[in-house]
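Sample log: Putative NADH-flavin reductase.
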Amino acid sequence: MKITVLGASGGTGTKVVELAREAGHEVTAIVRTRNGRDTVADVMDPDSIGPHLAGADAVVSAIGTRAARKPTSVQTDSTKSVITAMRAHDVRRLVVVSNSGMVTDGDDPFSRYLVKPILRQVLKHPWGDMARMEDVVRASGLEWTIVRPPQLTDGPRTDAFRTAVDTNVRGGMRVSRADLASLVLRCLVDPGSVGRAISVAD
C-alpha cells in the first residue's frame, strides 16, 4: 500500500511511518522542516502537498498543535487543506488522529462530572480545534476514520490495546504511541472502520 503520512515528524507520526515501513508499505513522510530524510511540504497549502498525495492509496494525518492555552485552528485548517488536495488527486482513504478526552463519557460519572470539566477548561483551545477538525472530516465525503487516543506515552508496542466504536474505551486513560500507530495501520485496511470514530486505550 502507498501511504502518505502528514505530521510525520511528531511522536505519533514517527511511529506510523516506522511501523508502516516495517510492514512493507511504501511511505511518503511529510514534514515541515528539512531533515535530509523526509519530504518537506506546507500542509496548509493544497498545491504544496498535492503532488505528494497523488497516487496514494491512503493518507494519514497525525498533525498536532502545541498551543495548549492559545486559540488555534492548526488541525482544522490543515485538514481542510489535506481534503482539498485529496479531492484534486482522487485519493479517497483518510485516517486522522484526534483525541478521546473531549468526548463525554455517559456511563462514567467520575470522568463525566469531575475529570472532563476540568480538562475541558484547561485544553479548550486544542480540543475545540480537534472537534472542528472532526466535523470537517465527517463532511468531506471521503472514506474516513477518526482515531481517538487518550493520554499518549512512549511505551512499547504491545498490540494488547482495547478499542471502542463511536464511544470511549471505558476506563481507558492512556495508550502508547506505538500501539496507537498500530491501530492506525489496522484501520487503513479495515473497511469496517470507514465512517467511524475508533477510540483506543490500554
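Observation: The beta strands are 2-6, 26-31, 39-40, 58-61, 93-97, 143-148, 151-153, 162-165, 174-176, 196-201.
Observation: Residues 8 and 14 are 5 Å apart (CA to CA).
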